[in-house]
């Protein structure tokens, strides 16, 4: 999985509010600081003059001037502004090693039964009836990476149902960041998809010849209905349906996140059916992924076959996109600047765009380094017998940054250690196929650790809830808290450990949840996709 959140944060919409606010606050503070410094200087000057005039002790007088001159230099950044985690790591390492770990949390399974169990039950709930006649063809273009495409696909099923339309299996838009040319059938099992939904929505692999001919055999000539994000069903019925009836086909591109979270319950259930039952990876992906899960379990014999998976977002593109500083040297600055220009040409140089790495870090927006992830997990009680699967693309400066994580977790695995290069040959250069392997291995782990919000953990958490009785068993770090701890030069291991255990408990209580109307069904499949079972 190379590359950042193709998620909302990448389009900058979600993040804009707080970031703007932080910037504004920064400016106000800067202004205040400057005024305060000027005031201090003036006072000091007056005091010094007074001292000279009265012939007072020069020690005190000089001291005041020196003190007052200090704010002219940059004030020290507040805790959590600068990356210094490697210093804390070196400091606590001996203590970390000396402390006997309590039983590994993997062995004290926390699949607690909370009253009644939740189980998948979509098929039971969906009523099957004759398919109504079709109002026309719906053509959508799925943009983004693997899981953003998943949103488009499942929502396209929902919209086809709302409109009584025939869906053409979605085309994947070639993304400038993900750069994967795979087609629907390369990633997903297309026949299974069509067959699983057969009783609810008509799906065809291609537009029929006569319709295609009408549009000059060119998909791009089908009128594109530009649709606002999260449009309600009424928009589709009032705006899209008349056009579809008139032309026989309509196109919506881009299509991701174009349908509201809140839709009628029968449509919601179709989203469940599409996401959890109809969408399965293509055979070549499934076979390798299942083999890799098997190997992972075998290599986790010290913990009864259970393993932890981490979605580690520390690829070059991710670090560049975050605008965070780590080493802060020239080499890093150049690498980041180049990566930003490569994937988001000009975006970071637009007028008014202020990049503030220190504020980003304090606000918990910086990708965790492998070292930070390792310390966090050790603090949470996962000891060196834990086998760890690291899901990621090419880690930025891997040799340097992965070493401490391997030191803390010698039983670390990746795609490259679980599969041979021959096995991976079909996948090379295809970020979505590689992401599909990561997705499967993370899905089957005992505990999943996310490090950055994006569509990958969003879908994975939902899928894990669906598979594991409603509980996501996902660790979601509180990064604005972590940066404070990682920037405390006096912290002791015991103290750090306590904080981490609190964080783990907090994640655990959040693992279980019922969807509210404005939340995503792909993250919270209860109660729409699941039913409560009698206590066993
Ligand atoms: C779709 O078909 C159902 C069942 O025949 C019908 O009740 C509904 O009004 C139709 N909707 C549209 C938009 O054609
Ligand atoms: C398809 O149509 C689009 C838009 O009308 C046009 O720009 C493009 O050149 C066409 N492509 C081909 C292969 O004719
Ligand atoms: C884990 O650490 C202990 C104590 O430092 C050491 O004896 C043991 O060999 C380590 N286990 C692994 C799998 O590295």
From TrEMBL:
Family, per entry: Belongs to the glycosyltransferase GT106 family.
Region: Disordered, residue numbers: 1-21
Protein name listed in UniProt: O-fucosyltransferase family protein
InterPro entries membership: FucosylTrfase_pln, GDP-Fuc_O-FucTrfase
Molecular function terms from GO: glycosyltransferase activity
UniProt GO BP: fucose metabolic process
Keywords: Carbohydrate metabolism, Fucose metabolism, Glycosyltransferase, Membrane, Transferase, Transmembrane, Transmembrane helix
Transmembrane segments: 36-53
């Amino acid at each position: 999985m190379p590359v950042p959140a193709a998620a909302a944060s990448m389009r900058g919409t979600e993040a804009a509010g707080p970031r703007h606010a932080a910037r504004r606050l920064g400016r106000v503070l800067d202004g205040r600081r400057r005024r305060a410094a000027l005031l201090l200087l003036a006072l000091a000057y007056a005091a010094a003059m007074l001292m000279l005039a009265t012939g007072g002790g020069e020690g005190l007088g000089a001291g005041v001037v020196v003190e007052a001159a200090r704010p002219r230099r940059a004030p020290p950044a507040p805790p959590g502004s600068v990356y210094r985690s490697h210093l804390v790591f070196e400091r606590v390492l001996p203590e970390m090693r000396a402390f006997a770990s309590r039983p590994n949390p993997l062995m004290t399974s926390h699949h607690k039964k909370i009253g009644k169990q939740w189980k998948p039950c979509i098929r039971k709930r969906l009523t099957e009836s004759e398919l109504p006649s079709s109002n026309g063809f719906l053509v959508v273009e799925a943009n983004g990476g693997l899981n953003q495409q998943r949103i488009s696909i499942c929502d396209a099923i929902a919209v086809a149902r709302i409109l009584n339309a025939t869906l053409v299996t979605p085309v994947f838009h070639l993304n400038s960041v993900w750069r994967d040319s795979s087609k629907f059938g390369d990633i997903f099992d297309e026949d299974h998809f069509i067959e699983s939904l057969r009783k609810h929505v008509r799906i065809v692999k291609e537009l029929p010849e006569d319709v295609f001919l009408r549009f000059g055999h060119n998909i791009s000539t089908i009128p594109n209905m530009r649709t606002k994000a999260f449009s309600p069903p009424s928009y589709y019925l009032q705006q899209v349906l008349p056009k579809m009836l008139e032309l026989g086909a309509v196109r919506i591109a881009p299509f991701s996140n174009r349908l509201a979270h809140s839709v009628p319950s029968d449509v919601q259930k179709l989203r469940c059916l599409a996401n959890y039952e109809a969408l399965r990876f293509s055979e070549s992906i499934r076979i390798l992924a299942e083999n890799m899960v098997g190997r992972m379990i075998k290599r986790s014999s010290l913990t009864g076959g259970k393993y932890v998976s981490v979605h580690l977002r520390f690829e070059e593109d991710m670090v560049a996109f975050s605008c965070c500083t780590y080493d802060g040297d020239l080499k890093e600055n150049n690498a980041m600047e180049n990566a930003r220009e490569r994937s988001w040409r000009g975006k970071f140089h637009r007028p008014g765009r202020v990049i503030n790495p220190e504020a980003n870090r304090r606000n918990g927006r910086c990708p965790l380094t492998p070292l930070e992830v390792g310390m966090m997990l050790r603090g949470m009680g996962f000891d060196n017998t834990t086998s760890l699967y690291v899901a990621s693309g090419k880690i930025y400066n891997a040799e340097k940054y992965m070493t401490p994580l391997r030191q803390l977790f010698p039983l670390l695995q990746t795609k490259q250690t679980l599969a041979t290069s021959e096995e991976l040959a079909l996948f090379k250069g295809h970020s979505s196929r590689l992401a599909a392997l990561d997705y499967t291995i993370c899905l089957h782990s005992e505990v999943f650790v996310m490090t950055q919000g994006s569509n990958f953990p969003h879908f994975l958490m939902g899928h894990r809830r669906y598979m594991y009785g409603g509980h996501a068993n996902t660790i979601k770090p509180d990064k604005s808290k972590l940066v404070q701890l990682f920037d405390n030069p006096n912290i002791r291991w015991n103290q750090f450990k306590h904080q981490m255990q609190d964080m783990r408990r907090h994640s655990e209580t959040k693992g279980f949840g019922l969807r509210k109307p404005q939340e995503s069904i792909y993250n919270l499949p209860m109660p729409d996709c699941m039913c409560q079972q009698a206590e066993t």
